[in-house]
Amino acid sequence: MSLELFKPFIGVESNPVKNEVEKGAIRKFADAIGDPNPLYRDEEYAKTTRFGRIVAPPTFSRTFEYGEIVGLTFKKEGLIHGEQQFEYYKPIFAGDVLFCSTKLADVYEKEGKLGRMTFLVYEQKGVNESGETVFIARSSAIYRG
């Protein structure tokens, strides 16, 4: 798929997907990343913090379902993860329900040592049941076709 084939999808967003944040999933994620912080696993400890309950680690939002951008289909094999950043407006708590979507924010090409590379810039968003944006995550993937 060339740059011209990706361009029509810039700004196109997936339908939001409902994600329920479970404390067991938060604990398992914290275990998987090797983070022993009791804020992610101990309800009694979490009650004593400014959060008042179990909170998810910063990169936990990577575990959510975001849906698919309708019509944007290409082989995912060989994609290279380029960059990732997270912007949080509110913490993610155990028990939260978030509606998550993704959109293709930008596409551009660069010439590299091995030839032309297409950069796909995605923006993932999580919105709570009150309609407030909880986080926005941005990532880039390098597509070599």
TrEMBL record:
InterPro entries: FAS1-like_DH_region, HadA-like, HotDog_dom_sf. SUPFAM superfamilies: Thioesterase/thiol ester dehydrase-isomerase. Residues 9-135 form the FAS1-like dehydratase domain. It comes from the Bacteria. Pfam families: FAS1_DH_region. This is MaoC family dehydratase N-terminal domain-containing protein. Gene3D superfamilies: Hotdog Thioesterase.
